[in-house]
Design a protein that fits this description.
It is a single chain. This protein has 404 residues and is α/β, with parallel strands linked by helices. The chain is 37% helix and 22% strand. It is built from 15 helices and 15 strands. The protein has an eight-stranded parallel sheet. Strand 7, helix 5 and strand 8 form a beta-alpha-beta unit. Helix 4 crosses helix 5, helix 6 packs parallel to helix 7 and helix 12 runs antiparallel to helix 13.
């Protein structure tokens, strides 16, 4: 008896992004078959049984299929906006000057604390819809704009709620160690006590976080303070991620690697030793060209060093109200290529396979392989490079999440 599938996409060209291929894993005459929301076959049409049956057959008419896109670093849930700070930067104020003057993250904290969970969800939905509209099927969302137990939990709950509002996988990260709240009176150690002894246990008990993140920087937290947070995360069995080496080199990449972090993100000032440590630990380098562009940085992440060391590189939007109000993974790829000199293959795998790796979900999504979720993006393009090359143009034909 012929095998029966829920759906077969045929007459397609595939960019499988398989982990065993150094390129995009392209298949000119490809086919995908799915059942129960999972890929059962993704490969050459010539090698697929000719008598296979399916409830639904879709002729892709030669279109390209990639894995659904993965945005592995966003701060999508927050209150208010910071357009006024953008005006200040245009007049010459730096990111650090604005932060030290009470703007930056702290100003978003005030707006987020005033917002209800429903309000946070409603304000985040348009941003999420923009990502979905370009083929995103998995998105990570961080907290970090509450800086108290109640609001941090509310942010995480709002992030989880988004996955019930839309057909998308949401991964959450607790970012309590993001900035110092006003009520801490400048005492970073006392605030980290609160993060470790009160916030993190409450978050772990709630089950609302998939990982723990921190911001290690001169305007944020030191290596010692970050270490305390990561050690407590380890107690609760939560993997870690780190905003590292964005504005200076404090050894963040190496510290992330020491804790076998899923990823270290930003990395403009990472040195050779940090890259080597990341490679050995398997920590993904998440590059965020939106923030680099928006705050007019000049120090680029060491992409060539990452290549030489074999560090996996992902790309993400870093969607946030202050330093990267970006909701386009397609534009993030173009920025990665033009600003950081990443290749087309690095950009495309960066928002699929490596993005999934940075979230610890590569066994579930990020490539077109049997056994993974049937998360697809189907494109009206002639070659994959178009997805990186074009600016302000969305060639998405159809997005498929869990086979539908």
């Amino acid at each position: 008896m012929a095998e029966r599938f829920d759906c077969i996409w045929h007459n397609a060209r595939l960019a499988t992004m398989r982990v065993d291929r150094p390129d995009l894993g392209e298949i000119e005459r490809g086919l995908i078959a799915a059942r129960g929301g999972h890929i059962v076959y993704a490969g050459a049409a010539a090698e697929f049984p000719t008598d296979a049956d399916a409830i639904k057959r879709i002729d892709c008419e030669g279109r390209w299929i990639t894995p659904g896109l993965v945005d592995c670093h966003t701060h999508l849930v927050y209150g208010g906006n910071r357009a006024h700070e953008f005006e200040l930067r245009l007049k010459g104020a730096s990111y650090e000057e604005i932060a030290r003057a009470g703007g930056g993250i702290v100003s978003t904290v005030a707006a987020t604390r005033k917002a209800s969970e429903a309000e946070l969800v409603m304000s985040a939905l348009p941003r999420l819809d923009a990502l979905i509209g370009e083929g995103a099927t998995t998105v990570e969302i961080k907290s970090g704009y509450g800086l108290d137990i109640e609001t941090e939990l509310r942010q995480l709950a709002a992030a989880r709620s988004l996955s019930r509002q839309r057909r998308i996988a949401i991964r959450t990260s607790f970012l309590g160690a993001h900035a110092l709240p006003v009520e801490a009176d400048g005492d970073k150690d006392r605030y980290i006590d609160l993060v470790c002894n009160d916030m993190l246990p409450a978050v772990a008990k709630s089950g609302l976080a998939d990982a723990v993140d921190a911001f290690m920087e001169g305007i944020a937290f030191s290596a010692e303070q970050t270490t305390r947070v990561f050690e407590m995360a380890k107690v609760f069995g939560l993997p870690v991620k780190l905003h590292a080496d964005q504005l200076s080199n404090l050894g963040g990449a190496a510290l992330a690697a020491r804790f076998s972090a899923l990823s270290a993100d930003h990395l403009e000032h990472t040195d050779e030793a940090g890259a080597a440590a990341m490679a050995e630990a398997g920590t993904v380098a998440v590059l965020l060209p939106g923030a680099f562009y928006f705050i007019r940085e000049t120090q680029k992440p060491p992409v060539e060093t990452f290549r030489k060391r074999g560090v996996h590189m992902a790309l993400a939007t870093d969607c946030n109200p202050g330093s990267s109000p970006l909701t386009s993974l397609l534009l993030a790829m173009n920025m990665g290529a033009t600003l950081f000199r990443m290749t087309v293959a690095e950009c495309l795998t960066g928002i699929t396979r490596e993005g999934a790796r940075a979230l610890g979900v590569l066994d579930e999504t990020g490539t077109l392989e049997a056994g993974k979720w049937c998360d697809l993006a189907i494109w009206d393009i002639e070659r994959p490079a178009e997805l990186v090359y074009r600016i302000g143009f969305n060639p998405l034909h159809r997005r498929v999440w869990r086979g539908i």
